[in-house]
Amino acid sequence: MDARSAPDEDTALERAALDVLDANWTGTATVPSVGRYPHQWSWDSAFVAIGLSRRRWSRACEELLSLFAGQWSTGMVPHIVFDPAARDSYYPGPSIWRSGECAAAPRGVPTSGLTQPPLHACAVWWIWRYARDRDAALAFVRRTWPCLVAQHRYLASARDLGGEGLAAIVHPWESGLDDSPAWDAPLAALPMVGYACGLEDWRSDSHHDRWVWLALRYRDAGYGPGYLRDEHPFAVEDPMFNGIWLASCLALADLAGVIGADGRPFEEAAERIRGGLLARLWEGAFYARDLRAGSLIPIRTIGGFGPLLDPGMPATVVGPLVELLESCFLGPSGYPVPSCEVRALQFDRERYWRGPSWVNTNWLLRQAAAGHGLGALERLLATATLRLVRQAGFRECFDPFDGMGRGCRDFSWSAALTLDLLA
Ligand code: 2M8
């Protein structure tokens, strides 16, 4: 059935999506989910702003502005901006990150010390593109421009840990694909034993303990760039993070035209990232590179399709990537796109980023398909995503075989991006 064929159903779905976003709005930002994620997350807010830009334009602007209120003086946009009024139910919360003790963090706005995929320039472009009030839109672009430029400068300097133009993530949480099997090997290699963080000794082998240990180590080093470069034991060049960064560089080049700034540095940055992706992460497919081990991580996940977001990727790369998508991700799953290759040993249909399908990555791939003129793939991804939310609601993620909803309900980016798909 064509998922877009029934106007009444579309209206009801749109209403339901707006209800979720209204319920998750705190007055200054949209939380991903009221119970499980009661603060503001960085790339979630970018997706929410994109989804709201055609329905609640001013709120889309507020969403990004409240995120930028948490930006550090280094330019880093933190992955969580904490709401001091929220129940302290999320771990690790502000008392673990202690951003207030770091001179680079903003005063009075508690945040995490990590970042997340830099989709924000794309979101600002969306807001600009769909504004009815062009003066207000221009003012918004001018206001956010310095934040975006600082964010990109931070990535190009403090995060080019491999020295070849790509940004490295220094924690799995920075990828947004938290428990992806791509991070299993670098996590397993962490030298955890013997490091006491003041809370307890680390003897456990669980992923969660390793995530927290890594965050604490970075915190205890004062969140410094020198420590990241020379000592931090987790540094990975992720194709999704860098594909999104590249797309945002292109958005910045376009936004430069809007405000009469020079767009060339951002076009050049996009070219540098494209060169880095091809030279360092491409081996018949895109893989993440473990900078500490000095090798590619040989597992194909949804992250490997991030570079498709670049409309300038050569056909010799786009062709095999689309073939891989069709044969190992779309073909074997009834409800695409699974977050890990279905035949991989690590694939798990029930566990977050180890198998389930997600609305945000489906949406990103749909954008990528549109950018390459792949109309059939673009339509398939839109239809499949709308089918998921129609059948299971705005869940956090979905079983890729039977479409059953997983994770929390009333999840913001699932609702927001549905609005964009319906638009
Ligand atoms: C998940 O990540 C957080 C940590 O940042 C968590 O598991 O607690 C991921 O799905 C991430 O991509 C997302 O931004 C976040 C909030 O929705 O949840």
Automatic annotation (TrEMBL):
**Which keywords appear in this protein's UniProt record, sorted alphabetically?**
Glycosidase, Hydrolase
Pfam families, per this entry? MGH1-like_GH
Q: What is this protein called?
A: Mannosylglycerate hydrolase MGH1-like glycoside hydrolase domain-containing protein
Q: Which residues form the Mannosylglycerate hydrolase MGH1-like glycoside hydrolase domain?
A: 37-414
Similarity field: Belongs to the glycosyl hydrolase 63 family.
* Superkingdom classification of source: Bacteria
